[in-house]
Amino acid sequence: xxxxxIAPTGVEKTFHPDQIIVSKTDRQGRLTYVNDLFVEISGYPxxxxxxxxxxxxxxxxMPRSVFWLLWDRIVSGQEIFxxxxxxxxxxxxxWVLAHVTPTFDTSANIVGYHSNRRTADATALSAITALYxxxxxxxxxxxxxxxxxxxxxxxxxxxxxxxxxxxxxxxxSLNNATVVAA
Length: 182
Known about the structure:
This is PAS domain-containing protein. This protein has 182 residues and is of the alpha+beta class. 38% of the residues lie in helices and 22% in strands. The protein folds into 2 domains: 18-120, PAS domain (Beta-Lactamase), CATH 3.30.450; 123-175, no CATH class. The chain is built from 6 helices and 5 strands. The protein has a 5-stranded antiparallel sheet with strand order 2-1-5-4-3. Strand 3 and strand 4 form a beta hairpin. Helix 3 crosses helix 5.
């Protein structure tokens, strides 16, 4: 089940707005639980998912800088809401609004992460797609992965600063139909 072997087809999958994709991981991001909808939408059998890195469903057109922001938040004990495009086993993709939170033990140590994902609003996707395309283009200008992420993060910070918003405020502005241009 190699993520790099799957070529995106451009076909988009959707799921019902009342449904929620759920997954849990350990601290390293390896899947420890996936619900039936995760299995259905991803196109992988549960047995091929458990123990694998969550990024097995990462779409190549997702900015690395967004994942850097996500991981920066959750490893520091904070939650994040983020738009994410995932890649299914058949090459189709699906957009989600992900809510990712750390999971704590009784001593307040992070033991893993939990993510609930809902369908993404079409109006929000128009704006987030434009931003993500800019970030990916900037990242691809750099051959070194670290430099690519840093460049993407700088551009994301610049766009958000110009809009006078944090990433969270930007995400919620999209959900509230007051879309801010990327």
